[in-house]
Amino acid sequence: MNNHKLIVGISQGDGNGIGYEVIIKSLADARILESFTPVVYGSSKIFGFYRKLVHNIDQMDTYVIRSAKEAKPKKINIVNCLPDNIFVEPGQSTPESAKSAIKSLECAVADLKDGAIDVLVTAPINKRAMVGEGFGYTGHTEYLQKEFGVDDVTMIMVSDQLRVGVVTGHIPLKDVPSSITKEKIVQKLRQMKKSLERDFRIREPKIAVLGLNPHCGDGGLLGEEEQTIILPAVREANAEGIMAFGPYSPDGFFGLGNYHRFDATLAMYHDQGLAPFKALSFENGVNFTAGLPIVRTSPDHGTAYELAGRDEADPHSMMCSIYTAIDIYRNREAYDALHAGKMQEK
After folding, report:
1. Exposed/middle/buried for 131, CB within 10 Å: 0-12, 13-18, 19+?
2. Are 147 and 109 in contact (CB under 8 A)?
3. What letter does residue 49 receive in the DSSP assignment?
4. How far apart are CA 246 and CA 47, in angstroms?
5. What is the pLDDT of residues 221-244, one digit of tens each?
6. CA 318 vs CA 142, 146, 160: distances in Å
7. Is 246 within 8 Å of 234 (Cβ atoms)?
8. How much is the pTM?
9. Taking a C-beta distance cutoff of 8 angstroms, is the pair 93, 130 a contact?
10. Taking the C-alpha atoms of 190, 193, 195 and 199 in order, what is their torsion angle to the nearest 10 degrees?
11. Residues 21, 50 contacting (CB under 8 angstroms)
C-alpha cells in the first residue's frame, strides 16, 4: 500500500459565496500541511481578497502554479485557472461567479483524470446560476457521473454518527413517486453495500430503508409504494446477501434515534434524508459521491451568500470533507490491497 502524502484538489465553487473563506480557514494552521498537499483551483487574486477579510490567521504560505503537477508540499498551491481581471462581489449571484465556478471545476476534474491530484473536494456552487451559464447538470454529482462515465452514483451524506443515501437526488418532489422503482432501490442498496465495505471498511453493513409515505402508508391508506415497491426491493436485496431492513417510517426512525442501530440509511428522496441529516450533523456533515472511480467529497452546506465576506462562515464541514476524502482514499487502498492478496492466494 502506498503511503505517499496525498494531493487534495479543492475547487473554489462560487467565488462570491463562502467557499474561499471556509477553504482559507481549513488550511490556516500550517501543521495541516504535514498531512496532505492542497491544490486550490480558482484565483490567487480572489484567495488574497478573502484572506484579508479573515482575521486571526498568521502568514499563509501560498504558491501559484499552472497545474497540480507543479504542486509543492507544505504549501497552499493555487492553480490560477481564472482570468486576471476576475471581479469579486461577496454575497451576489453573478454570471461571472457562475462561469468561474464551472471553470474551476473543469480544471480540477482534468487534473483528477490525469492523476495529478488524488482526491477532489468541491466547494459550494449556485446550481441555478451555473445552469444559466450553460452548465448542463443539476449539480456536482450528475456532472461527475457523466465525466467519469458511470451508469449510476449515490449521494451519501456522512458524519461521525450517521450515513444517509438517497434513491432520488436533485429532482422535483412531484417526480419522486414515479421515479422510485424496485430495481432502482435494489441498485442503490448494492452500491451502498459496496461503498460501505470498500470506502468505509465496514464488514457486513446493515442498511435501513425508509418508506415513502407518512407512517409507511398506514397499510395502504396513505399510499401503496411501501407494499408494492419498497418491501419487495428489500426482500430482493436480502436474497442477494445485502443486509437491508425496512421500510421504516422516517419520523419515528430519526426521532427515536433508530439510525444508531444501522451502518447507513437509504432515504427515498433528497429532503427526506438530508433534512434530518443536517439537523443532526450540519457542522460536520460531508457529501460523498459513491460509485465513482475517484473520491469526491463536499461540505454539506451551500454558498451562504448572506455570510460571504463577513468572516462568519464555519469551516468544520469543509475540514471534515477534506479528511473524509483522505480516509476514503486510504480505505480503498487497503481494501484493494487485501482483496488483491486474496486473489493471488487463490
Report:
1. middle
2. yes
3. H
4. 47
5. 888 999 999 999 999 999 999 999
6. 21, 24, 14
7. yes
8. 0.93
9. no
10. -160
11. yes
> How far is the CA of 284 from the CAs of 62, 197, 273, 330, in angstroms?
26, 22, 16, 20
* 311 contact partners, CB below 8 Å, separation of at least 6: 21, 53, 54, 55
Mapped onto helix, strand or coil, the DSSP state of residue 120 is: strand
Strand boundaries in 3-43, DSSP class E: 6-11, 36-42
Q: What are phi and psi of 39, to 5 degrees?
A: -130, 110
Task: State the amino acid at position 264 in one-letter form.
Answer: A
Q: How confident is the model at residue 339, as a pLDDT?
A: 82
- Beta pairing class for 163-166 and 154-158: antiparallel
φ/ψ (deg, to 5) at 270: -50, -65
CA 17 to chain centre: 18
Does residue 66 sit in helix, strand or coil? coil
User: Sheet holding 295-299: strands in order across?
Assistant: 62-65, 76-80, 36-42, 6-11, 119-122, 295-299, 286-290, 154-158, 163-166, 264-267, 206-210, 243-248
Is the pLDDT assigned to residue 343 strictly greater than 80? no
pLDDT digits (tens, 9 = 90+) for 141-174: 999 999 999 999 999 999 998 999 999 988 999 9
Residue 289 has pLDDT above 90, yes or no: yes
| CA gap 183, 169 in Å, rounded | 16
